[in-house]
Design a protein that fits this description.
The protein contains 18 helices and 11 strands. The protein is of the alpha+beta class and about 475 residues long. The longest helix is centred in the N-terminal third of the chain and has 20 residues. The N terminus is likely disordered.
Length: about 475
């Protein structure tokens, strides 16, 4: 299986060679970072503006403000009235949108290559000249509250996940939802949004990523033309935030209308250490020192357990024993907050309980703690990672996503290029070691859904939103 994945790399080499051009990084005098990756397979360009700010930077009482500001960024400047940004991109035949996460906020456009100056002009304008009116804010905060209802109040599994995050993180901002708590949204003001914009939206807190049929020198010239005149700001101090060591299992039961039970189990785990590593803070708080290979071993462990029909959890708990109708595992090896959770999720089969599913999941983990994983499993996971890396290179958008995410989370964005090699070096003993180290009872948080009767006449509380 591993050899066949390598064969994919070689078979794809003519097209991949064009996509594999090394990205180039520049920095303007005002602190703006520019990363350009030439990909000349089609006359298209993807432009992404990443701000190093997200829900991680919020404070109690103002949760959701990062996401709210993302919405407000489409409400216009003095030069570009509300709605005109999107109309100009559409008139050029392009697509555009934005998203907010814990670690970052990103705005992006995909256009025919000759329209890159349009994207730069519009983005530079709203980076410095956004107009937030009371009237526009009053309308948009209602939209965001509708979005919260749609994302959380209408979905029982989302309620469980929100409760799970809040239990897993007692001190760290990762315990709060990106969309914000409803009470905070109800009491948010236009001044809160303006404050967030003034604090974090500046060229020296932004990374512009461009991938496509362009020349790096020409993109740099455009960036200097449009973003160069913007003034940098003194950014707020970012203080390290460390989650205290968990000292026993935490549990919660969520009762909400639903059809099926649901289970989430999580364990605190480290991430790849960034350039601004908080390793010393981990040591001060009693956290063990993180070995460089551990996050990669956790990635392999997640792949052994989940990811396709032949993975352990699906094979054992769904196919062979019929304990679950759906089951999976997940882990993020990189984050700006330098913290992550290794998660197991599942829905028990009819006639089975969440308690039975929990015991079965933990038994699978125990097997790995005792015996490690097989070489065949390692080969399968490593082959899948290499294949995914090849497929992602086929998308200009995802090439940009990888670069932007890593750069904005504080890593050297070139790390993604060495990731497959790091994963290939992981051994069964290392996978066994991280399972023994981190997937322990005292480090475990469990949240379950106890489904309540559905009201046949109930209507959705919210609705989705598109910019």
């Amino acid at each position: 299986m591993f050899k066949s994945a390598l064969l994919v790399l070689f078979l794809a080499s003519p097209a991949m060679a064009l996509a594999a051009t090394q990205a180039q990084e520049f920095q303007l005098d005002n602190g703006l970072k520019l990363i350009v990756k030439e990909d000349h397979r089609s006359p298209v360009v993807v432009s992404q503006v990443w701000y190093q700010t997200g829900a991680l930077d919020e404070v109690n009482g103002k949760t959701g403000v990062a996401h709210l500001l993302e919405h407000m960024m489409f409400k216009g400047t003095k030069a570009v009235p509300a709605g005109q940004f999107s109309r100009e991109i559409a008139a050029a035949g392009g697509k555009e949108n934005a998203f907010t996460g814990m670690d970052y906020t990103c705005y992006f456009q995909q256009l025919e290559k000759s329209h890159l100056p349009l994207a730069f002009r519009l983005e530079a304008d709203r980076m410095a000249n956004l107009v937030i009116t009371e009237e526009a804010f009053a309308k948009e905060i209602q939209v965001v509250m509708e979005e919260r209802r749609w994302r959380t109040e209408d979905k029982p599994q989302s309620k469980v996940n929100e409760q799970f995050q809040a239990m897993a993180y007692h001190a760290h901002p990762y315990g709060r939802p990106v969309v914000g708590f409803m009470n905070d949204l109800e009491n948010m003001t236009a001044a809160d949004a303006q404050e967030w914009y003034q604090h974090w939206y500046a060229p020296n807190n932004a990374t512009v990523v461009v991938v496509g049929d362009i020349k790096a020198a020409e993109v740099l010239a455009l960036a200097k033309q449009y973003f160069g005149p913007l003034k940098p700001k003194a950014l707020p101090a970012r203080k390290p935030q460390v989650e205290p060591v968990q000292m026993g299992t935490r549990r919660a039961v969520v009762k909400a209308p639903g059809k099926l039970p649901y289970l989430v189990i999580g364990f605190h785990t480290p991430t790849i250490q960034s350039k601004r590593s908080l390793q010393n803070n981990h040591a001060k708080s009693g956290q063990p020192t993180v070995k460089d290979w551990e996050p990669y071993a956790l990635d392999v462990l997640a792949g052994v357990l989940s990811g396709n029909a032949s993975a352990r959890l699906n094979q054992s708990l769904v196919r062979e024993r019929a304990i679950a109708v759906e089951v999976g595992a997940g882990y993020d090896s990189a984050s700006r907050g330098q913290l992550s959770l290794f998660e197991l999720v599942g829905t028990p089969s009819e006639g089975k309980t969440v308690q039975e599913l929990e015991l079965a999941l933990l038994a699978e983990i125990e097997q790995i703690k005792q015996h490690g994983v097989t070489q065949a499993e390692l080969n399968r996971v490593k082959a899948a990672v290499i294949a995914a890396d090849v497929y992602e290179r086929d998308s200009m958008f995802y090439q940009g996503m990888k670069i932007g995410q890593m750069a904005t989370m504080g890593y050297d964005w070139r790390l993604s290029q060495t990731y497959p090699e790091q994963l290939k070096a992981i051994t069964s003993k290392q996978v066994q070691a991280v399972a023994q180290q981190y997937l322990t009872e005292d480090n475990m948080t469990v949240a379950t859904l106890a489904p309540q009767a559905l009201d046949p006449d109930a209507k959705p509380a919210g609705k989705p939103h598109m910019h």
